[in-house]
Backbone:
């Protein structure tokens, strides 16, 4: 049993915001392995005692709800200070953990993945059956992702490498898979004959704040589309796997990513919009614009196609941006019109298409938009109106941070919700085609006011359901 978690980047933002709160919840719910030990690794010199009190202060909000779990988790923590750029120092500092099955979690900047993995490997910490967990981004293009993956494979086998895409840990994303694979009604129509288009929207009100340098080197395309949005697209579009084994699912996702039509230079102008937020008002608060010399986008809208039998001719529209009007993550599947329209009202072409709308954030809802009639005598002819079936789970279990699920799966060795090397590379291959098209055509980065829905040029890329409240299909 893997009972030791080595957490690199333990004083960083990700660890404080998500990983420690998740671990506290898992401790509370007794979901951590028997004899669990946490080795927090960071650059700052301090004793284990000092680290525990530092962390206790930061977990004050968690402690208010569950002081016993915070105490319990803190008791399991030791702290190790080491320079994470120094492979030899890592090997020396972590060698005491070589003899037990462990999970090393690199919540560090991506340029440290390889030096840390090499240090751990030299110390024997990555020997079978120990595992390695990595955050995104794996590289910033195909070439760098290949280099990182090759360097990691030299340290341990792919079957023990867990690449996180935290969207896969979200319960609503797993529900998306359940809905499409667990229902005859959807299975039957899940293809180009019946589906007109698919929209994937990830709108954030948050800005780049505090991550300017990282962001300037990546932009929204690399930060959000390469991973979270293409993973959503792959789950929606993949062929049903023959079973739920990690590799059966990952193989199907990879095939979708490989079938994405590369962005041609001639298409970039009509199929993409890049934007960057200027000053504006978001959620009632005046905010500054994103200013940086790098011509990097905080908003991207794309139209793409999957060139295979199931999806021929179906546009997938992907939109993501920071400092937008509202926080909303949605998948909207719009169906084709019925083959022969019998009704006067609404007139043919003005009916609202059937739509499956899955909202992942901030609330988790599922709605099916249909046409129906409340036949009233004064209407004369049979008049149809849009109506909506609410398929949301009313008794959904306690909401969990996505990382809780992912941490448990990494400790138990289940790779299903982690991204395989070839998936990452196929995603980068497509992203590279977009980047190449942008630079060849000098695609402009259009400024939009913070608090809007992005550049006006992107209006046609936004889902038609935007702004419709729940039940308003
Ligand atoms: C991260 C990106 O991977 O996902 C951030 O680096 C983004 O830029 C975040 O804000 C969004 O995650 P969530 O779970 O809040 O939708």
Residues:
């Amino acid at each position: 049993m893997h009972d030791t978690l080595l957490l690199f980047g333990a004083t960083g933002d990700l660890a404080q915001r998500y990983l420690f709160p998740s671990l506290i919840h898992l401790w509370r719910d007794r979901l951590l392995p028997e004899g669990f030990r946490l080795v927090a690794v960071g650059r700052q010199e301090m004793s284990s005692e000092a680290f525990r009190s530092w962390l206790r202060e930061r977990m004050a909000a968690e402690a208010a709800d569950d002081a016993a779990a915070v105490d319990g988790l803190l008791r399991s923590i030791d702290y190790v200070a080491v320079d994470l750029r120094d492979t030899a120092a890592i090997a020396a500092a972590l060698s005491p953990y070589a003899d037990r099955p462990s999970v090393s979690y690199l919540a560090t900047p991506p340029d440290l993945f390889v030096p840390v993995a090499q240090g751990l490997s030299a110390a024997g910490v990555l020997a079978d059956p120990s595992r390695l967990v990595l955050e995104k981004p794996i590289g910033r293009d195909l070439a760098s992702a290949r280099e990182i993956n090759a360097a990691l494979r030299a340290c341990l086998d792919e079957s023990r490498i867990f690449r996180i895409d935290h969207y896969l840990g979200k319960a609503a994303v797993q529900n998306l898979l359940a809905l499409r694979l667990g229902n005859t009604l959807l299975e039957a129509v899940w293809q180009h004959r019946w589906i007109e288009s698919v929209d994937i929207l990830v709108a954030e009100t948050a800005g780049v704040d505090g991550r300017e340098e990282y962001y300037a080197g990546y932009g929204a395309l690399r930060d959000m589309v390469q991973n979270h949005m293409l993973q959503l697209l792959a789950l929606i579009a993949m062929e049903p796997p023959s079973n739920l084994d990690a590799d059966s699912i990952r193989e199907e996702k990879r095939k979708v990513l490989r079938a994405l039509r590369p962005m041609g230079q001639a298409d970039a102008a009509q199929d993409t919009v890049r934007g960057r937020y200027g000053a504006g008002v978001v959620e009632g608060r005046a905010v500054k614009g994103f200013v940086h010399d790098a011509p990097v986008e905080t908003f991207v809208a794309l139209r793409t196609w999957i060139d295979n039998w199931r999806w021929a001719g179906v546009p997938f529209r992907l939109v993501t941006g920071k400092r937008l009007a509202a926080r909303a993550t949605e998948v909207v599947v719009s169906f084709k019109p019925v083959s022969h329209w019998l009704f006067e009202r609404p007139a043919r072409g003005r009916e609202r298409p059937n739509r499956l709308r899955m909202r992942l954030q901030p609330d988790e809802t599922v709605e099916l938009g249909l046409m129906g009639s409340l036949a009233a005598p004064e209407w004369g002819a049979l008049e149809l109106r849009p109506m909506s079936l609410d398929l949301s789970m009313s008794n959904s279990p306690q909401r969990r941070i996505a990382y809780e699920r992912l941490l448990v799966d990494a400790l138990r060795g289940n790779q299903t919700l982690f991204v395989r090397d070839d998936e990452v590379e196929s995603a980068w291959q497509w992203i590279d085609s977009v980047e190449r098209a942008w630079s060849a055509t000098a695609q402009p980065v259009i400024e939009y006011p913070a608090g809007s829905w992005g550049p006006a040029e992107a209006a046609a890329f936004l889902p038609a359901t935007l702004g419709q409240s729940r039940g308003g299909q």
In short: The longest strand covers residues 272-282. The chain has 14 helices and 17 strands. Residues 342 and 372 are 13 Å apart (CA to CA).
